[in-house]
Specification:
- The structure holds 2 protein chains of 2 kinds.
- By secondary structure, chain A is of the alpha+beta class.
- Chain A has helices at about 80-95, 120-125, 130-145; strands at about 15, 20-25, 30-35, 40-45, 50-60, 105-110, 150-155, 160-165, 170-175, 180-185.
- In chain A, the strands form 2 sheets. In chain A, strands 1-3-8-9-10 form a 5-stranded mixed β-sheet, with no helix packed on it.
- In chain A, strand 9 (about 170-175) and strand 10 (about 180-185) form a beta hairpin.
- In chain A, helix 1 packs across helix 3 (about 130-145).
- Chain A is globular and about 40 Å long.
- Chain B is an all-alpha fold.
Chain lengths: ~190, ~325
């Protein structure tokens, strides 16, 4: 089952895409927002011809490790994992009238924590969820042939990411700082 | 006869030693609503082995506002009670004494954390979200690593950053400067606090919770949540409770804090500038896969539509 947020039928709005959720909108007045990303990654996909926008807020890189005898893939929300969120989001965009070949991507998030004082770099990567999340998303996008127009990943700051449905603008605001343009996914391909 | 009048310093910059600076700040702890006496009393009663449901109900009923809030929560879908709960005694019987203790603490802390800290977080209530999720994460970890009092871990997680509330409120300028140092110098918030103030929020939180008469191992966990190794070792613990149990509780809170930060829950301007003491993973005997399963658990908790987290909304 795909976790898709309900859309307000009457008015456009700022729609918060929470952890392990994905959302697709065709309402030109809507914005999709992922607040306060840490190691999580916001995947922003946009059909720049038909103007269908989608965002997923992924938490972990891969669902495989969480499959067990009693828990099959159907029990795990696809938007939670990098490797399942991307195909699920593409599918949802297509269901909403988008075309796979028009889709372009931007991703942001995947920050990392500091390592232990005095330890070497290898040991600090032990729990590098952020880096692995970004890698998983990029691999999934590559596997589906979706071009990545821009990415803002890594670092150790939190981010809030906004995708506007009307023109595919993706903006990133590091927490406590000013917002900056990451990508204009609505621009015609060059 | 001529008398001399002592002029109290009006600003922390007029105080020299770090210890006196900390004492100066703590005199303003009264500026934030204290943890209600009733909440502390309920927590202490539940910790005692022979306490009855009636005793807890009687203590809680001394604060009617708190009682009403606890009953509202007990009736929320999150706890899935099959019927309407109208008295505290019923709530204790149906949900258990320790659940009621956690609810009482969580509800009491909401007022402490529900403030807009300009420049620190994006959304009002982020400090509350972070603290509550840290409490939840700590309780879940404690249960899985067989810490004998998982509820104590919940309270320690809930209160671990209480020192930040007082610093941000009374020393907002220094708080902002510390955030700037974090960004500019790529240091942790604790390192920036120590550079600017001479002490950090963990020290402030420990002293505040000590004044609230919370159990010593809980105070120690708050004091050392950024440096859990110090809670294991008597010579490094600065007089706070130390040893295997205190060390384990502190390690649990350290990891719970890290999990919430990794997930971006209530992330502040200090971002992910947090030093994981990897020794906690050995101490708690956890591998990476298990830590990822905790990330799953906490993200599920956040996604629940009617969780404790929605209390403030």
């Amino acid at each position: 089952m795909v976790s898709v947020l309900p859309t307000n039928p009457s008015t456009g709005e700022a729609i918060s895409v929470e952890m392990a959720q994905l959302h697709v909108s065709t309402r030109l007045t809507d914005s999709l927002i992922a607040y306060g990303l840490g190691a999580c990654v916001a995947v922003c996909l946009y059909d720049n011809v038909l103007r269908v926008a989608g965002m997923a807020h992924i938490v972990l890189p891969d669902h495989q490790a969480f499959l067990s005898g009693s828990k099959g893939q159907a029990d795990l929300p696809p938007a939670k994992f990098g490797n399942t969120a991307v195909p699920a989001l593409v599918e949802e965009i297509v269901k909403n009238g988008g075309l796979r070949e028009n889709i372009r991507a931007a991703i942001a998030g995947g920050a990392h924590i500091f390592g232990d004082i005095g330890k070497n770099a290898a040991s600090s990567s032990r729990l590098e969820i952020g880096e692995r999340n970004a890698k998983s998303v990029l691999e999934s996008l590559a596997a589906l042939g979706i071009p990545v127009i821009a990415s803002d990943v890594g670092g150790s700051h939190g981010r809030t990411v906004t995708l506007k449905v009307c023109d595919g603008t993706v903006k990133v605001r590091p927490i406590g700082r000013t917002e900056e343009l990451l990508a204009a996914l609505g621009k015609t391909k060059t | 006869m001529q008398t001399t009048k002592t002029i109290e310093p009006t600003h922390i910059s007029e105080v020299e030693s770090p210890e006196e600076r900390l004492a100066w700040l703590l005199q303003y702890a009264r500026d934030i609503p204290p943890l209600p006496r009733v909440a502390v009393q309920v927590a202490n009663l539940v910790d005692q082995p022979n306490t009855s449901a009636a005793q807890v109900a009687q203590a809680l009923s001394m604060d009617q506002v708190l009682t009403a809030r606890v009953l509202k929560l007990a009736n929320s879908a999150f706890y899935g009670s099959p019927r309407r709960i109208s008295t505290v005694t019923e709530a204790i019987v149906l949900l258990g004494m320790r659940t009621i203790r956690n609810m009482t603490m969580a509800v009491s802390c909401f007022d402490l954390y529900d403030r807009d800290v300009k420049g620190y977080t994006d959304r009002r209530g982020d400090m509350w979200r972070h603290s509550l999720c840290c409490g939840y994460a700590a309780q879940q970890i404690a249960t899985r690593v067989r810490y004998p009092l998982p509820e104590e871990a919940f309270v320690a997680g809930l209160l671990h950053d209480i020192g930040k509330v007082l610093i941000s409120l009374r020393l907002s300028n220094e708080f902002r400067l510390a955030l700037e140092r974090v960004t500019e110098e790529k240091i942790t918030f604790v390192e920036a606090e120590c550079a600017i103030l001479g002490f950090d929020h963990a020290q402030v939180g420990a002293r505040m919770t000590e004044q609230w008469n919370l159990p010593p191992q809980l105070v120690s966990a708050i004091r050392w949540h950024h440096d859990p190794a110090s809670a294991c070792d008597a010579s490094a613990s600065g007089g706070y409770k130390s040893g295997p149990e205190a060390g384990k509780l502190t390690a649990i809170v350290h990891l719970a804090d890290l999990i919430c930060i990794t997930l971006g829950i209530g992330l502040g301007g200090d971002g992910l500038n947090y030093r994981l003491q990897e020794s906690v993973l050995e101490l708690l005997n956890l591998d990476n896969q298990t830590v990822e399963s905790y990330l799953m658990l906490v993200s599920d908790f956040v996604s629940q539509p009617d969780s404790l987290l929605k209390f403030g909304s």
